[in-house]
């Protein structure tokens, strides 16, 4: 983890130096703005680390402000760097073809100022669109048939969500929206596929976000599994808080619902990294179950899907990927995961990987939508 954070911090500093250097160059035609730009750039660069540090030692509205500024800055960094890099490619081409005004001329200085203001405007517009998108989840409806009978149910309605990331950014307003939308769907059972909490549970406690979770209603229960973020922030404390607010946390355990079907909850893949303990294999979790009954697996990170198929799982619900959250990272998650988002069937096993309801880092989504999943499950 230390090596990981050193690498991330180094990249963060280098990217910000690039933006800082090119921004000052671009404002040559408006020297009165340079000091303001320097103050904004330095403040933005330091905001996220300062905000996260303050959350550890003195959680307050001040830490929230720094956290929010830093979170937005991550998205601004990404798209401003892409646009600045595109302008630098044009400059390189001009070195060989010479189609821009002469360097140092007033026309060239004005062109740099125009380019800089255009990049700033486009970046802010892109981030604003992504912020709007992140606050408007879609409802995904799936109809899935499982070739098994149950004693008491011909069909059930599952409402599922993953990657809520409750905390400083996903706070009361969005948590209430999640609860309201789920209840309006009249679920028989509610399933959360990990990362309910965004790392440290303290901002969740301070804002009493669990109060909204207590309003969730489903006659067959509300179940959740751990994600990597529960482990990052302290898994035992996060699970205790969620359990005290209406969620039944399944950690390498299963439960038989209404004598009809199983919900199996697998502990997160990062368990070994944070506790030096192995989680159970899927085959271990289902070996002692009655496989004539439907088996629904919650496994946060969608790796090694063939193991679920071989173990006889009927439906697996996962999350984690966010499908990259910010374009173009979805192309990377598509290379990493067999399913980066959406539905797929392998043999007799149905898989759904959610893009998630919340956000991690910047409260911005581009290239995909946040979602709540409705699975109309029919037993035949």
Description:
Strand 6 and strand 7 (261-265) form a beta hairpin. The chain has a six-stranded mixed beta sheet. Strands 6-7-8-9-11-10 form a six-stranded mixed beta sheet, with helices on one face. The protein starts with a helix and ends with a strand. The mean pLDDT is 95. It has 380 residues and is of the alpha/beta class. Helix 1 (2-26) packs antiparallel against helix 2, helix 2 (34-57) packs across helix 3 and helix 3 packs across helix 4. It has helices at 2-26, 34-57, 61-97, 106-134, 172-184, 202-206, 210-213, 228-233, 235-243, 271-275, 282-286, 305-311, 330-336; strands spanning 138-146, 155-161, 189-192, 222-224, 248-249, 253-257, 261-265, 295-298, 315-318, 342-346, 349-353, 371-379. It has two domains: 2-133, no CATH class; 138-379, Purple Acid Phosphatase, chain A, domain 2 (4-Layer Sandwich), CATH 3.60.21. Helix content is 46%, strand content 16%. The protein contains 13 helices and twelve strands.
Topology:
Blueprint: H1 2-26, H2 34-57, H3 61-97, H4 106-134, E1 138-146, E2 155-161, H5 172-184, E3 189-192, H6 202-206, H7 210-213, E4 222-224, H8 228-233, H9 235-243, E5 248-249, E6 253-257, E7 261-265, H10 271-275, H11 282-286, E8 295-298, H12 305-311, E9 315-318, H13 330-336, E10 342-346, E11 349-353, E12 371-379
Parallel strand pairs: 1-12, 2-3, 3-4, 4-5, 7-8, 8-9, 9-11
Antiparallel strand pairs: 2-12, 6-7, 10-11
């Amino acid at each position: 983890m230390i090596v990981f954070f050193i690498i991330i911090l180094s990249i963060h500093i280098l990217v910000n130096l690039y933006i800082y250097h090119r921004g000052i160059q671009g404002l040559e035609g408006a020297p009165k703005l340079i000091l303001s730009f320097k103050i904004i750039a330095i403040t933005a660069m330091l905001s996220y680390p300062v905000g996260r540090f303050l959350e550890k030692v003195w959680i307050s509205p001040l830490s929230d402000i720094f956290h929010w500024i830093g979170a937005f800055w991550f998205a601004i960094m990404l798209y401003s760097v892409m646009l600045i890099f595109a302008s630098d490619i044009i400059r390189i081409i001009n070195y060989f073809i010479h189609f821009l005004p002469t360097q140092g001329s007033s026309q060239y200085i004005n062109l740099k100022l125009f380019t800089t203001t255009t990049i700033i405007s486009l970046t802010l517009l892109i981030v604003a669109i992504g912020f709007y998108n992140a606050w408007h989840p879609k409802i995904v409806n799936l109809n899935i048939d499982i070739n098994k009978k149950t004693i008491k149910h011909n069909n059930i309605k599952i409402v599922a969500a993953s990657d809520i990331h409750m905390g400083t950014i996903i706070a009361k307003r969005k948590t209430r929206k999640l609860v309201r939308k789920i209840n309006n769907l009249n679920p028989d059972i509610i399933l959360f596929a990990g990362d309910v909490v965004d790392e440290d549970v303290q901002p969740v406690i301070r804002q009493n976000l669990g109060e909204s979770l207590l309003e969730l209603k489903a006659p067959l229960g509300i179940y959740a599994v751990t994600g990597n973020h529960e482990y990052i922030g302290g898994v035992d404390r996060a699970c205790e808080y969620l359990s005290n607010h209406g969620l039944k946390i399944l950690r390498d355990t299963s439960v038989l619902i209404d004598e009809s079907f199983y919900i199996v909850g697998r502990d997160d893949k990062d368990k070994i990294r944070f506790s030096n303990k192995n989680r159970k294999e899927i085959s271990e979790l289902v070996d002692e179950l009655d496989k004539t009954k439907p088996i629904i697996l919650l496994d946060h990170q969608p790796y090694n899907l063939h193991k679920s198929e071989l173990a006889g799982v009927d439906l697996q619900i996962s999350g984690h990927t966010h499908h990259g959250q910010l374009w173009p990272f979805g192309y990377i998650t598509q290379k990493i995961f067999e399913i980066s988002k959406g539905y797929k069937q392998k043999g007799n096993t149905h898989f759904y990987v959610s893009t998630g309801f919340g956000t991690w880092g910047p409260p911005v989504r581009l290239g995909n939508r946040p979602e709540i999943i409705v699975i109309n499950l029919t037993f035949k």
